[in-house]
Amino acid sequence: MDRIKETIKETIVVEGKDDEAALKRAVNCEIIITRGFALSEETLKRIEYAAGTTGVIVLTDPDFAGERIRERIAKRVPSCKHAFLSKEDATLKDNIGIENASSESIREALGKVRTIKPFELPLFTKQDLFALELEGFEHSSEKRNKLGKALGIGYCNAKQFLNRLNHYGVTREEFVRALKELGYL
After folding, report:
1. Which DSSP string corresponds to 134-167?
2. CA geometry: angle at 149 spanning 136 and 151, to 5°?
3. How far apart are CA 53 and CA 40, in angstroms?
4. What is d(CA 79, CA 100) in angstroms, rounded to the nearest whole number?
5. pTM for this one?
6. Is 174 strand, coil or helix?
7. pLDDT tens digit sequence for 134-168
8. Cβ of 36: how many Cβ atoms within 10 Å?
9. What are phi and psi of 58, to 5 degrees?
10. How far is it, in rounded angstroms, from Cα 58 to Cα 39?
C-alpha cells in the first residue's frame, strides 16, 4: 500500500529537475528550481513572490554550490526557511545532491525546518565547540555532521556550525538533548 504523502504548504526551492523529482516522490508541494548557481533575476522574483504568499523553504545540496545558492536566496528573501540534508543522506557513490536522498530523509529534513533569527548575544561560543570536541579534534568534523543532522542545521565547518547554532534559533535545551541522544554527553 502506498504511503499517503504529506502536503507542504510552503514552496520549496531546489537546484535542479532531479531534485524536483526526488521531492515529488517524498511530499506534495509547489517547487521552484534555481537551475544551479546561475540563479536568474526572474527566478529570484518568483522566490520573493512565493515567500509573500505561501512561504519558502530552501533545500539545496549539502555542498559548496548549494550553500552559495542558499546564501543568495536568504540575502534576497530573509524570511525564507531552511531545510538541510546531511552529506551521507544526499550522497550516492561520489555524487552529492538532493536527488540522491531517500524520501524518508527528505521528509525528515523538512520536519526540521529552521528560520534565521536575529540575536543580540550569541548563545553558543567557540569555547562550547572546543569543550565538546566539535572543533579542533580529529573527530570534530564527524561529530558536527551527526549533531548538525540531529538539529536540522546540516553539515558545515566549525565557524559556519557556530553561526548556524546562533542564527537558526537552536536552544541550549535542544542542543543538550541532541548531544545526549548521540551519546556525546
Report:
1. SSSSTTHHHHHHHHHHHHTS----HHHHHHHHHH
2. 90
3. 20
4. 28
5. 0.88
6. helix
7. 999 999 999 999 999 999 999 889 999 999 999 99
8. 13
9. -95, 125
10. 13
Q: Are 83 and 101 in contact (CB under 8 A)?
A: no
Instruction: Name 108's Cβ contacts closer than 8 Å, sequence gap at least 6.
Output: none
Cα-Cα-Cα-Cα dihedral sign, residues 150, 79, 46, 52: positive
Return the C-alpha cell found at 58.
530552501
Helix ranges, 6-157 (H): 17-26, 41-53, 64-76, 103-110, 126-131, 140-151
Question: Distances from the Cα of 182 to the Cαs of 104, 110, 117, 119, 131, in angstroms?
Answer: 20, 21, 26, 27, 16
Distance CA 8, CA 41 (A): 25
Task: Name the 3-class secondary structure at 91.
Answer: strand
97: helix, strand or coil: coil
